[in-house]
Amino acid sequence: MAVLLDWCMFYLMICINTPVGWQTLNLIDFEIFNVSAAQLNPSGVLAVMDNDRKQLVLFSPQGALIGRFSGPGQGPRELAYVPEIFWDVGRNAFGLLDETQNRLSFWDSSGGFVQVVAIPHLQWTRSVHALEGEVILFVSDIFGYAHKVPRIHQLIGDNHKILRSFEMAQPREGTASTSMGPFGMVNDFHPRILMDVGTTMIAVCNSESDRVDLIAHSGELMSHVTVSMTTFELTDDRLRDWLLEHEPFVRQMVKLDQIDRPDTYPMIHGLLLDDQDRLWVFGQGHPKTGIYETSVFQDAHLVWQGHMAALPFQICANQLFSCIENDEGVRITSRPVGF
Question: For the chain, which has fewer Cβ within 10 Å, the N-terminal or C-terminal residue?
C-alpha cells in the first residue's frame, strides 16, 4: 500500500508540474516525418515545424491537433527554412526564424498570423529569443566563417544594436567534398558559438572551450562557469561510426582521407537555460553510445552531473521535452527532470 501511495504521489506531482497532459506525441500519427524545430508556450501549447510541408503545426496541452498553418513560399504568411521556434511574451505569439528569408514570422497559439519582422541580412543566425518589450536577441555568424566575427545582436523595432562580439579562430575546412546539410558534419566537428537566453541572463560559449559566460540581457558579463567533460579524439574509426549512425545516406559519398578535420570533438554540444535559470551544458555524444555528458549549474554552482540519451529542446515546469527520431518515426516526449 505504501508503494502504491508513493507512486500515486509521484504521478500526481508530474501532473501538477507539467504544462502538458501527455508524455509522448507520435508525430507520425499526424503525418509529420521531418521536424526542424519545436517549442512549448507557457500555457502548454506545442508548436512543431513540419519541414517537409513548411507548415507550423500546433497541438493543445492535451495533445490534440489545433491545426496546420502556412506553407512554402515567399509571401508574408509563407515559410522557407525554419530552424528555430521561440515564444515571444510581448507579442503573445510563437516566433519562427525563417533563416532563408532573413525574417521572423509570428503566429498566435490558435494559429492566427500576427506579423513578419525583418532581421539584418547575416549568415548563420541562431539562438533567437524574445524579451519583454518586443526585444529580440540573437547570435550571428556562429562559425566565424570568412573572418566574419560572431556577435550577439539586440533588435527593438528598427533599432539594431550589437551587444557583444567574439574572437574566434578560423575553422578548418571540413565538408567541402560532401553535400551534407546544415545539421551535418560541419555542426558536429567545427567549433561554433552556442547561446541560450533565460529569464534573467544569457549563457554563451565557444563549443571548443570549457568556459560558459553568464551575461546580463544588456550584454555585461555577470559570471562564468567552467565545465569538466570528456574530449573525444576524432579518429577515422569514430568518424566512420558517426557517419553510419547519423548520416547513412551519404556514407558512400564521403572519403575519410578527403576530410581535413580537427583532432578532437568540440567539448560542448549545446546549452539550455530552463525556466528556473538553471544552466544545462551538454557534451558531445559519445561516438559509440550516443550518450551525452550533462552538467547542470544553479547560480554558477554545479548541482548535478550525469548522462542523457536524448537531448531536450526545452526544459520547463521541471520537465524535459525532447524530439526523438528513429526507425519508428518522430515523436515528442516529456519526462521529469529527476533531481
Answer: N
- Cβ proximity of 148 and 162 under 8 Å: no
In the chain, count of helices (H) and strands (E)? 3, 24
Q: What is d(CA 264, CA 191) in angstroms, rounded to the nearest whole number?
A: 10
Q: Count CA within 13 A, CB hemisphere, residue 77.
A: 8
Residue with the bigger pLDDT between 13 and 206: it is 206
Q: What is the pLDDT of residues 48-81, one digit of tens each?
A: 999 999 999 999 999 999 999 999 999 999 999 9
Select the more confidently predicted residue: 46 or 11.
46
CA-based nearest residue to 337, from 312, 323, 325: 312
Separation CA 86–CA 267 (nearest Å):
26
pTM: 0.83
Cell 548535478, residue located: 304
Helix (H) or strand (E) holding 23, with range, is none
Candidates 232, 258, 334, 318; CA nearest to 21 is: 334
